[in-house]
Amino acid sequence: DQDTNTTRLRHVLVTLATGSTGVGLRYHAVSGHRSDVLSIYDVTIEGNWTMSTGFVWDGPAFTVTGSGLRLLHGQYGLQVLNTAGSSVDYPQFMNMHDLEAEGFTKRALDIESGSDIKIASSDINNMTNSGHGTTDDYAIACMQDAGGDHAQTRGIQIVNSRIGNSQRSGVYATCRNLQLTGNIFFSTSQAGL
Fold first, then answer.
1. How does DSSP assign the chain, residue by residue?
2. What is the pLDDT of residue 86?
3. Fewest CB within 10 angstroms: 37, 148, 176, 181, which?
4. pLDDT one-digit tens code per residue, 102-132
């Protein structure tokens, strides 16, 4: 929601309906408006193997923090976007611990614009070897901003996490300042690429 401050989600379960193309959790603000501080603790979003997205973070919605976020079985797990193409109002500041993003037909983590994002002690995988399709590409993609200015997509840290079960590579990046530290990569290039 726009113009909101200090929202906390704790002990929440969202189950998307069969055939859903929706979004389990959307944190979005538009230019001229601003939302600050979304705290997430012990939240599960179950996509039920649909074409859904677990969590979309978009626009000048700043500061996501928390632990125990479970994004399961959809098309995308977490998408960080800048749909307005703004060079000023884009997602900034995430500190997430114990994120489980598992079982996606496209990507577990898709950062198309955003800065100062830290994900630690997490499990990020597409689960392609489980018989649920082979249409995914990367477990994690960190792209330059959709408007072509990769200055917005920067300062991303993924530390002490498991990354993999993807058709291509575990991580694909065209952004700046991506730091990968202490991660375990497993079952990447499932397609033999």
1. -TT-EEEEEEEEEEEPPTT--SEEEEEE--TT--EEEEEEEEEEEE-TTSS-EEEEEESSEEEEEEEEEEEEEEEEEEEEE-TT--SSSS-EEEEEEEEEEEEEEEEEEEESS-EEEEEES-EEE--GGGSS-S----SEEEPPPTTS-TTSSEEEEEES-EEE--SS-SEEE-SSSEEEES-EEES--TT--
2. 83
3. 148
4. 999 999 999 999 999 999 999 999 986 555 5
For the chain, the distance separating the N- and C-terminal CA atoms, rounded to the nearest angstrom, is: 41
Residues 146 and 168 sit within 8 Å (Cβ to Cβ): no
List C-alpha distances in Å: 75 to 46, 50, 69, 122, 130. Answer: 11, 7, 17, 19, 15
Q: Encoding tokens for residue 28?
A: 């979005």
| Max CA pair span of the chain | 47
> What pLDDT is recorded for position 151?
64
Asked if residue 3 has pLDDT above 70, the reply is: no
